[in-house]
Amino acid sequence: MKTHFMRKTADLTATAALCCCMAISTAILGASLAFLTSKGWGALTWEFITEPPRAGMTEGGIVTPIVGSVQLIAVSMAFAFPVGILTAIYFNEYAADGTLTRLLRLAIRSLASVPSVVLGLFGFAFFCSFLRFGVSLLSAGLTLGCLAIPTLITAAETALQNVPQDFRDASYALGATQWQTIYRVVLPSALPSIITGGILCVGRVAGETAPIMFTGAVYFSPGFASSIFDTVMALPYHIYVLATAGTQIDKTGPIQYGTILVLLALTLGISMTGIVARSHMRKKL
Amino acid sequence: MPKSAYGKMAASGARWSEKAPRGIVTAAALSGIWLMGFIILFLIKEGMPILSEVSILDIASGNRWYPVSSPPRYGMLPLFAGSCAVTLLSCVIAIPFGTAVALFISDVCPERAREFCKVSLEILGFLPSVVLGFLGMVVLAPWMQAKFELLSGLNMLNASFLLGVMILPTIATLSEDSLRAVSQSLRDASYALGATRFETMFKVVLPCASRGIVSAAILGMMRSVGETMVVLMASGGAALIPRFITDPVRPLTSTIAAEMGETPVGSPHYHALFFMGCLLMLFTCLLNMLVMKIESARRAK
Question: For the whole model, what pTM was predicted?
Answer without folding.
Answer: 0.88
